[in-house]
Amino acid sequence: MKSDLFAQANLEVQTSERFVLQNPRMLKVTLGAPVLATKGVMVAYQGQVTFEHKSAGSIGKLMKKVVTSEDNPLMTVAGQGEVFFADTAKNVFILNLEGDGISINGRNLLAFDATLDHDIRRVKGVGVAAGGLFNTIVNGHGQVALVADGDPMILDCSQQPTYVDINAAVCWSANLAPQLHNSMSMRSTLRGGSGEAFQYAFHGPGFVVVQPSEGPAYQQGGGGQGGNVAAAAVGGGILGGILS
User: Fold this and answer.
1) Which stretches of the chain score pLDDT less than 70?
2) Which among 192, 189, 216, 211 is positioned nearest to 200, based on CA atoms?
3) Contact call for residues 94 and 113 (beta carbons, < 8 A)
4) Residue 44's Cα: distance from chain center in Å?
5) Buried b / exposed e across 33-52, counting CB within 10 Å, b at 16+?
6) What dihedral do alpha carbons 8, 150, 224, 22 form, nearest 10°?
7) 157 class by beta-carbon count within 10 Å (0-12 exposed, 13-18 middle, 19+ buried)
8) 67-125: per-residue pLDDT in tens?
9) d(CA 160, CA 173)
10) Is 228 in contact with 131 (CB distance < 8 Å)?
């Protein structure tokens, strides 16, 4: 049988590296030590591999998962073999952390070494009672894989305020603490709005990675990152007693 389908570029990548790109849209992880991955991103595996729900681990993390409706549920992947991860054919990028950290939009997190510390952080300016917006911070020594819908752009936030659509922000420096910014006036709201009401506001030494796609809109009670932004801003945040 002959076909371009069987070209060398489509064969499994043979390497001794633990995290490696099988191709620009697929990650290959060689197990030994376990990895944590977003539920549902496994596309294939070889060998003896198990998949288990990742518990919160501590009371503090459990409470955060309850508040966020566990918008970014993780699974523990363990055993011996190779596992392939992908997310709707998005581009995959591997980060090597060397004692530092990265803050990742939950929907862009693919997989990371289980030895890395991770936690959920709430974006300032959004009420918890209304659902809020949350991101995952990963730090320590190890590897992290994330996805971007298209070719990303990196913006320097140190020189001037930087505003990014909440659906387009992929990840940012762990030391940056974004706030929710409302760029729409009441007059514009009454006239139907612009469709560009809320953004993450960054300012300080660091960077933010932006993808050329806003992806699916945030939905109340799941999908996205724990709730509808407008409801969070109006019902429990900007106009209703912000918890920051």
Assistant:
1) 55-71, 125-132, 184-196, 216-244
2) 211
3) no
4) 21
5) ebbbbbeebbeebeeeeeee
6) 20
7) buried
8) 544 457 899 999 999 999 999 999 999 999 999 999 999 899 999 999 999 998 887 76
9) 15
10) yes
